[in-house]
Fold this sequence. Notes:
Radius of gyration: 25 Å
Amino acid sequence: MRVSLKDVAAHAGVSIKTVSNVVNNYQHVTPAMRERVQRSLDALGYRPNLAARHLRKGRTGIIALALPELGNPYFAELAAAVIDAAAAHEYIVLLDHTGGRREQEILVSQGFRARVIDGLILSPIELEAEDLSDRAENVPLVLLGERDYDLPYDHIAIDNVAAARAAVRHLVGLGRREVAFIGARRGRSGPAQLRVRGWREELAAAGLPADEGLVAATDGWGHADGADAMRRLLASGRRPDAVFAYNDPMAIGAMRVLFEWGLRVPEDIAVVGFDDVVEGRFSAVTLTSVSPDKEAIGRLAVESVLARLGGDEVSEPHRVWADYRLVERESTLGRASAVHRRG
């Protein structure tokens, strides 16, 4: 049986308006009255009707999150961060899967779910600026990822070029001189292009050649793609002393192939990934990885949607850079050094 405000008011011996003020956290309620009503709320097990609360404001209480690949651990962890951030504001999240396909990203961005959502957080892969330039839907849109669309939408990202440079700088600092990159996309991909750019720039800064023969292109982002890229690179006769992978699943796939070829990580070839997903922290050789602040990305994205819904004074759409850090583990430091650093 659902407990109503009337039930709580009768139990506490106060008016329904007073109970409503406490439930809605109005500031003018005295501490003593707030405590009295809260005891009744707890005793009766009252749960607010969030749907009704949102409907009174002309909203649904739902934010959509559209991601390119739900099976990718990074996007799974990012989704969890968005869901937690939304829950803190009493919103729920509707997940959508675009597969990184342009036509699906266009469909999502043009508001085909507009009647059931209050805002959209979209992580595009293939979407182009012209696909958004004539967007008629007024549901707030927040973009995730590194492509610069130069359009009037809030955008949350990390600096992929700088992050890639930090990964390569770490490898060069360990004395590695032939650093391969696996995961350059055959098709369009903003993040992949930016990470390759960072790879090139840092090698140049170190006075080392950016050998394009050490760049392995792939069609996908997964373990098998990383394994195939590493296998092709070794079969070509190239033997780098380090590998920087587009993401962690590809790095883990590459390490499996190195094991199959009898090569040791990191003694023969050091490996760095990107995204710092949980799997890399528990692989047989723990993975050094660039770690974006996923919790901050999720929180900033939700706050941007709610700010637009609330009519906050945000003069111009803004681009926010979230933090990242390089987490050094066994795949570059070796077991003894990594254990010592953890200690």
